[in-house]
Each structure stands twice: as structure tokens, then as C-alpha cells.
Amino acid sequence: MNGSEMNGACARSASPICEKPFQRSTRDPDADVARRAKEYCSRVLAKMSEEAKDIGDISQAAEQLALIWKKRNKLSEIAFEGLLAILELCLLQVNEQVDLFSRLINSLAFNSVSFWKLAVPRIYDSDLSHGTAFRETLLFSLALYDVNNGKNRLRELYAAVPGVRQSMLGIHAKKFGEKYRHMQMSRSRASSRLASREGSCEDLLALDNDTVVDDSPSSDQGSEGLSASAGGGSATSGQREHSHHHKQRVINVSNAPPVSLTRKDSGLWEIKQGSGGLVACVDPVMSEDHDNIWLANLGLNFDEAKSEEDLHLSTNSLGLPIIQQARAGDVFHVIEENDKKIDGLTQKQKDVELVVGYDAIQRDMSLLSVLNDYNRSSYKLNPVFVSQEDYNSYYGGISNGLLWPALHNLPEHVVKDYDDPNVLNDHWCAYVRVNYHFGLNAVRNARPQDFIWIHDYHLMLTGQIMRSLDSNLEVGFFLHIPFQPPPEFLTKYKMVGDPILRGILRFNKVGFQTHRDRAKFLELVQKTLPRARIAYEHGVDIYTVSFEGWTCSLGVFPVSIKNEDFLAIANDTQTVIRSQEIKEEMMKNSGEGGSLFFSVERFDYTKGILEKLKAWKRYFDNHPERKGLDVLYQIAVTNRRTVESYRKYQDDCIALAEEIKESIRSDEHPEWRCIRFETDGLQRVQLIAHYLAMDVGVVTPAKDGMNLVAKEMMVCNPSAALMLSSGAGTEVQLGMAGFYKDEAKCYHRVEDIADIESFARTFYEAAIKDKEASLSSCLLPDPPEVRKRDSESINQFLCAHGIDEWSTAFLDPSWTHEVIRPSEVRQLADFYMLMNKTAQVRRQIVEVVLKGMPVKQHFAISLENAKNALEKSCEPNTTRLVLDTTANAEDPDGANLTAKFDISDELDELTRDLAFLQFVQEDDINNVEQFIDTLGSFHPSGPAAYQEEVSTACALLTKADHFHFFFTDRDGTLKSYSCSYPTSIQPAYSAVIQAQFARRCAQFCAIVTTAPLVHIGILNMSTMPEGSCAYGASGGREWYLNPALQFKDDTVSEQDLALLHKAFEKVEDLLENPEFRNFTWIGSGLQKHFGHITVAKQDNNNSIPHRKSVLLYENLARIVHDVDPMGQTLTLREGELDLKIFTKAKLSGRIFNKGHGIRLIERKMGLKLTDGNILVCGDSETDIPMLEECLLVAPSNVYTIWVTTDDSLKQKVSSTCARFGNTNVEFVSSPKVLLGAMGKATIRELTIRGLVPSHFDEDDHHY
């Protein structure tokens, strides 16, 4: 049945269900939406099978319809309509249909790109025709799917409809701005050079565009050809004018803003700098640069469903405030219309007032004006707006009803509503949605060189969301609260716990307050994500976690305070006088020898206030002699009274405090009261005066991230004693720093605040403990000099580790996995890991150079450190590296336990990359071209021979002018051979040259190699930006163009490949065992080719004992048997140096060569090799079939350059070309010559410019 027949059937039915999905102009009630989709799918299935279908579970219908649609037969169109009906239901009921949407996406599998290409136009048409918002809902639904499942399916939508991502992020507008600034800098440099020669300053806009800018659409740079503008060099006036464009900004993202915003009765908005802990920590960093940006929610959210008359103060048990903070209109019109301001004036006066004054008054009073004024005098404060309903569920619900108590390990305070999975799901969707909006806003504001700093538990998913939008962003996260979730967090609340663990690992770097919190996180990662790989660098105390292709660095950064601000107030004479007055007032009714205990915190159940009060009461029960002496001044600043659990806790504490005050009295001092309990906060000056007045500071939370109050106390008053609970992060920090040892306990620790007896005993010790008199078992008041000595040592430590150190340490890029630190290469694993790190750094270098962005300082530091590490590890005065293959120095077989390598190529490539970095940072428009000329110094016959070879090869490229197709081998052709494949990392300079050649001189580029795609494959070795070229791995049997466009030779079934993949995972796990880990590093290591797996069992140096090779074979045989017990699909073959697991179908097929690989991509991509010139490059006989295939199709259009000095190979290549009457062939002696020729060809003027293929997205370089 075709689409018209189905429409006819629908027309004959009166039921509204026959309207096609995404073509309805009305919204039905939720119940009708679900029923309509179900009936529609039933009808679709019935029409296809010609029998009625009663759908019990619409999820099953999704799988059935997807299966039929993927067959691409006559029923596919009808099945597609059914899938659209299910998609429409999912987008209309996002929260309710989370499982159904997941089932739909999973059913589409690898066909999702094709599905979105067909579905998105229907969605767009609905939004335009019927005013729906399906596009935005679809984007969020995919983001929610990715968060819940740890996937990245949003990228498939980008691949299907590239414009989606551009419009989401404002890519085109941002790119215009980037190019405009780059053009201005280039013109400025040209102007500077003209001025130096002519003695005049050229007007920037008077310069002709073509003199400084490559106006070709295929170039992403603002300068001609290969010229790079990466910042640095001499600072011309123009550079200074535009230098802000290239510096790194900090984009700070937090739920709470750094300001307090209030609207007065008059309608004016007032903005004041905030005083919270986050502001105190981050504001100094942000204030350093007015270009920095702070993204936060100002409390003004959209809530169109409610009016201001619906305000209520009550909340439900989750503490979700019903009160509406602001209406959507307030954001854009934030003052009331008040015509009374001009009443009583004459018409003329009104006109003048309206024109001259009233608009100005409105502007001054508007919220946007207030923000603009703030931004002009400080860093940029950008508000993030979300739905008020979502915000309530996100902030009052998940954040404070679940995450806050759970991460503090206080499960008894998790609200009971979350026992209902439907409530949990709804609020979780709101949490993800708000994180999505924060992440989207951050990406829209970010430039490539910026650092985005996310704060606290409200926004733990933004890293994953942001990096799914732009994987090149540098995003850090700091958790200000503890990370101590109870066991049920990952079981009972698995819907929340698992995504948060995965989400945290998507940040580039993560900071915890204490080692305890980091250890707990790692423990849960190991338990929940067993395939995560964890490494530790002892020298810098950093853990690195790799999972699903992402790597994250985990550090510990105890947050601190701005010491100088507190000390300035504490040292002020007026503050000292005030402190004396406070002490006299608080202790006037106490006897001699009494102590003033002072505690100040938010009125929060995490602060242990109730336990503190109970212990204070028990203290006097146990030590009645202290009645009439000691006083506890407790300030608990009330907050979150709208949350039921908080309100009850606060009421209980206040009642207990009142009971203690009335019940504990002293006959000797009748006016004395043991406690003073207040709920109003203090201004900073007053607070510090109380710090100076106290004898003992009490900071005893149940759990706290750090608790800066303890640090404030000891910085301001180095003479006071300090009581700390083990739940405070400050206690963990001080304990690890050695301030609590048996021989020297500089503070009083409360091990467990729930142990009231022990807590009371600590109060007693803090009041009177005398270390000098302890031998006589007589406790006397603590001598002031002893207390002062202990406290001063803490004071000195805290003063040396202030807030500047905290922020500087976290922002320092050198502690992350992206920076290579000085190291020693002793083992084979060290060598390969080091080279893999250089690959990561080189990819970043290539990215910023091609985009014309500044080269970060740590790039050169990383490569220099890598080079030094290798040189120092070589035998003296050689490039010979001798490495242990295992950590075990002895082996019972007496075999050679070392591997020997000549790493001259690796060292030379690092040297060239370091030189390249210097050239691209020079203030010369021809900097990269000059670098290309320096490659001649590495030519065996000298620079003159190099230049001659380059000229000859470049002449051939110039003759063709432009290539429609470019097929090339890699190793030996574009990259000189390394000592082993895992170290053959593509240098940055090579990647830049190849990428620019691909952009300007060729239309479709492909690297065809015998290596696999991944798992020590071509994608691991390449450093070119994604989309610069296609990769044909395993001789062209598997192709990769971008994450959403991959295909393979179809001679091996999906079932066989699935079994092979299962075997590969088991082999991968086996090689993680320390006993077998070295097999990962020797020879070809572990490689997953198309149709087979290769595992090295030995290398050319016989480094591996024979016994271990045999043991490896036995374990692989066991894996093959476990995966394929009947032996029908997989077989294990043993070679001289490696073991291979084949699919039997592959063994029975033809011998696949690179020519077949070109034929495969030609068929799959619909390429027409007859349409234009073809360039083929190679260096061995295995590349000749690639040349033959191209000559067979278009003999006169083929141009070929071969990298060889072998006369026999030269003859074979020449003969192959001669057979087809082709003479367009040249030979060069090394890959450096070929790269030099490609570079020279790139900077010339092109006569012919090919059209960009339809499958190529120029802006993002994606096929």
C-alpha cells in the first residue's frame, strides 16, 4: 500500500487518527495523544500485513516498524509513517515517554542518520505551519537520551542535518566575527609592515582584501594558503588593538549569580555584589579581565502558565516553591507603566518629557539597563532563563531534595517523594533540561580558546551536553560539596546516579575538595563502569580516567578564602575594640576561667547543629562544674524555610536550644545562660569581630565540602582553639597536612558527631585541656601559650594557601592529562603512553593553527618534555632506546626482557613540530611557507636536492591544477616509518599541510591503509581534524568519514562481526591483566581489523618469554571457544609474531586489496572517478592496485607521485602507467619532499576550483 492509498483510507474514516503525524494543527489531551499514536500504529501494521493488529505495547510496534522500514522495500514508506507517529508521541510527552523514545532510537541503530534526513523536514514543516516546537523538543530528547544512556546520538542528527548545529550555536555569526577579527589582525600586520617601509600608517580598511585574505570559500583561515596567524610575535599597534580576541577568557557557569538582584517598590532594579562562598572563591579570578563571562540564573524565569495572582507560600514535601518569582514579560519589560509620572503637565511639557526624559528613566530603571551598567564596570554577567516549572523541579527538587543530602551521605533527608519512580523521572527530566539550557548558553558564548568553568552539584551534566555540541571545548568542573553518596544512590536512584557518574567524566578536568571525596568517586567509577581505565600520576597527585573515548583528569583542590580581605578588617583598630565589647557582653555573667565557644553557619541539617546542641547539653550533665563559666554563641542563618524538611529541622533545633537555655542554670551565677541562639546573619565586620572575641571556634558539620568558616576563624584569630568534626573538608586538609598527630594535635577533632558522649568530651577538652599537666591526670585550664602555639601553626598554613593559590592551581592547564609532564621512560608501556599523549597535543595544535587561533604555551612545553624524556632515556650519545617489557625483572625462562628501538624518527618529528610552533607564532604572513623550506635541512642529500625534488613534484601538481579525488597511502608515503606502529603519530606540521592541501587542491581525499581504524589504528595515529579526509582501513574494507558516516565491506555478516566484537572485548579485558599487559605494546599490539583481530605474541627482538606466548595462545583459544562454542564462526590462527582471530567467512573470500577498497567507496558514496583529475600516492607494491583501479576508470586523468628510491618499484609503477598510456608520474625520495610539494602547491593561485561535494559540510569539515 503506497502513501496515496493510505491517505484515501484515512479520508474514508472519520477518526482524527488518520491525520499524518506532524501535520496536525490542534493539540489533544495527553490521553488522546497516546491513544491516537497507538491506533495509528495498529492501522499501519494492519495495512502492511492485511490483518488487524492489536498493539499491546507501542514499544514493540516501534521495533516492528523500524525492522520493516530498514528493509527498504515497498512497505518502508508506510512503516516510516508509523515511526513518525511514535516520534510525535515522544515529543509531545517527553517525560512520560522516555523509555519509548529510547526504544525507538535503539531500534533505528545505524540507520538513524537516514531516518533523521527524512523526518526532520516533516518536523520543521510542522513548526512553521502549525506553530509547534518539535525541533527544540527533539534536540532536548536526544540530549536526554545521551545523558541517560551514555551515548552521543545527538551527533547523528547533526550529520543528517548539518544546519541544526549551526543554528543552535549561532555558528555562522560566531564564525563571521572570528574571521572579521582575524582579517583585522592580518590587515594590521600588513599596515605595520607598510608603515615600517614607508613611514606612514595605512588605514586598515583601505587595504585591498586580496592582499591579506584568502577569499576562497574552502579556506577557514583569514590568510592566503598555508599562512598561519596564531598570535604571539611582536606586538604592533594593531595587534594590541585586537589582542583581546586571542586571549583565553574564563566563562564561569553556576546556578547562583555573583550578585543579588532586587526590585524596589518604585519599580527600579538594584544590583549588589553577592557575598556567598562561591563569589568569594571565584570573583577574584573573574575580576581580572572584563571580557570574562559569568553565566547564572537570576531567578527571573518564564512561567506563562501562571499569573501573579496565583502566588502561594506553601510547598509540597519536596520543597518545590509554588511562588512565582517573575513573569516572562518582566525580563523584557521590568518596570510598571506609570502614566502618573507625567500627569499634570501641559501637552508640550509632556512631549518634551517623553522625548527627553521618560525614555531615559525607563532605560535606567530596566533590568537590562542595570545588567548593562554592571557589565561595563565589571566582567560580563549573562543571565540564563529557564522555565519556572523546570527550575522548581531542578533546584528545589532533584538538586536539594536528592543530590544535596545524598552527596553528603545523609540518605534520611532524601525526600520520600522520590520513592515514586514517576516523580523521580519527571524531576530528573527537569534537571537535565536546565543543565541543557546552561550548557547551550555556555557553548554559544564560548570561543575555541576559552576555558569554561562549571560549579557544583546543580550542573553536573553540562560537561557531557556541552562536549556533545562541541567536543573541542575545554570544560572544567569543581564540586564545592562532598561526594559521599550512600550505596542506594546507584541502586534505588540509578536513574540519577549512573548518568551523573558518566557526566562528570565528560569534563576535561574535575576538582574535588578533599582526597576522601575523590577516592569515593573513583571507587564508584570502578564499581559501576568496569571498562573505565584509571591511571595515577604520583608526582602530581592526579588521577586520569578514560571511558568511552573521553578522558578526564581528577585533582584535589581545597578551596580557601581571600586572606588579605579578612586580615585587613581583623587588624583594624575599630574591629579590635568591637571584639572586646562583644567578649565583655557575652561573658559578663560568667565566672572566671570561662570560655566563649562561637559557631556560625547556615541553618542546614548538614551542619550538625542538632547534634551539637545535644552534645552541649550532655557536656554540662557530665561536668556540672562548668556551669556558670562557658557560653556557646550559636548563629544559624535561616534559609530554605519553604522546604518542609528544612523547616522541621530548624524548628527542632530552636526548640532544643530554648530547652537547654532554660534548663541549665548556675546557682552561683544566676544571670548566666549557657547558650545564645540566633538566626540572623552578621555583616562581615561584625562577624570578624566575633571571631576575635571567641576562645574556641566550633565547626562540626555532619558533612561539608570544605567549610570556610573554620579557615576564616583561624586566619583572623590565631590565638583561638578550634573544634573540627571529621565531616568538615577543612579537617581532612589539616589532618593530611600533619596538624593532627599523636605528638601534636593542633585542633580538637570530633570523630563522629552522632556519638554525643564523645562530642561532649571534646567540648570539655577544648575548654580546659592542659597538655603539660596531663601526666598528673589533673586537668587545668589550657595555658594561653600552648593554645596559641597550636593555633598559630594552623594560621601560618592557611595564610600560605589562600584563594589565589586555589584558583590558580585549578586553572593551571599543566595538571591535566592534556599536558605532558617531565617523565622517565623505562618500560615499553611508558613509551607508547608518552607517544599517545603527543598525539593528543598535536591534534590541539593542528586545530588552533587551522582556525587561526593562538597557540597555547603548554603545547610547546608538552612536546619539549616528551622529547627530553625520550632523549634522556636513550643509551648515551645514541637514539637507541632499550626498555623493559615488564615490571618484573626476572623470568623463569631466562628470556630477553627488554625491547630495543631506534627512535630517530620519533625524535626528528618532535624537533620539526617544535620548530613549526615557533614559525606559526611569528609575525610574518609567510611563516608556514618558510617552515616548509626548512625541511630541506633534513634531506639526506641536502637542501638543494630537496628543493629540486620539491619543484619537480610541485610541477606535476600544478599541471593538474586541481584534483577531484586524492587517494594516498600513509606510512612511508606521507609519514616516514617509525620504530613501531603505535609510535607513528602524525606530526602537527604534516597534518596542517595535508589538511590545507585537501581544502584547497582536492575535492575528495582519502587515506587508504592496511592498518585498522581504531584500537591502535589509523584514527589513533592521525592528528588531522575530523572531516579533512576519509580513512579506508584494513586495505579499504572499512571506511570512516565521520562518526555518522561509516561503512564496511558487506561480505561479512553483522552476526559474525558481533561475535568478533564480543571476542575483542574479552581479549581487551585479558590484556588489562598485568600478566598479559605487555602484549598490548609489543609489535602490532592489539588491533581490531575488519573481519579479524590481531594480537602480537612476540616482537623482532624476542622480548617475550616463550612460556608467556604459549599462555597467551591458550587464553585466546579459551575466549574463542567461550564466544563461539560450536566453532561455526570464529577460528584462531597462529603466525610467526602474532595470533589472529578470523571470521571464517573472511577466510573463504577473495584477497581484498586497496583497489577493491577504492571500488567499495566509489560504490557506497556514488563517486564518479571519470569526472575530474585523480591524484594517487604510494610507496610500496601494495599500493599499486589503488593506482590500477584509478587508471582503469580514467587513464588520462590520473596523476601519481611515489615515494621510493627502489628502482624495481619505480619500474613497476612506470610500467603500470604506460599500459594505460599515462605519463603523469613522478618519484620523490622521502615523505618530506611530498609534503613540501603539497605545501608549495597549496599556496599557488588555482585556475580551476571544483565544487564542494554535496556530502561535504564545509563549515564543520564533515563528510
Automatic annotation (TrEMBL):
Q: List its EC numbers.
A: 2.4.1.15
Q: What class of enzyme is it?
A: transferase
Q: Describe the reaction catalysed, as an equation.
A: D-glucose 6-phosphate + UDP-alpha-D-glucose = alpha,alpha-trehalose 6-phosphate + UDP + H(+)
Entry annotated with the keyword Ubl conjugation: no
Q: List the keywords (alphabetical).
A: Glycosyltransferase, Transferase
Gene3D superfamilies per UniProt: 1.20.58.1800, 3.30.70.3080, Glycogen Phosphorylase B, HAD superfamily/HAD-like
Transferase among keywords: yes
Q: Which InterPro entries does the entry link to? A: Glyco_trans_20, HAD-like_sf, HAD_sf, T6PP_C, T6PP_helical
Region (Disordered) residue spans: 212-259
The UniProt GO MF terms for this protein read:
alpha,alpha-trehalose-phosphate synthase (UDP-forming) activity; trehalose-phosphatase activity
Q: Alphabetically, which GO biological process terms does the record hold?
A: trehalose biosynthetic process
Physiological role: Catalyzes the production of trehalose from glucose-6-phosphate and UDP-alpha-D-glucose in a 2 step process.
Can you tell me which family this protein belongs to?
A: In the N-terminal section; belongs to the glycosyltransferase 20 family.
Cited PANTHER family: BCDNA.GH08860, TREHALOSE-6-PHOSPHATE SYNTHASE
Q: What is this protein called?
A: alpha,alpha-trehalose-phosphate synthase (UDP-forming)
Its source organism is Pristionchus pacificus (Parasitic nematode worm)
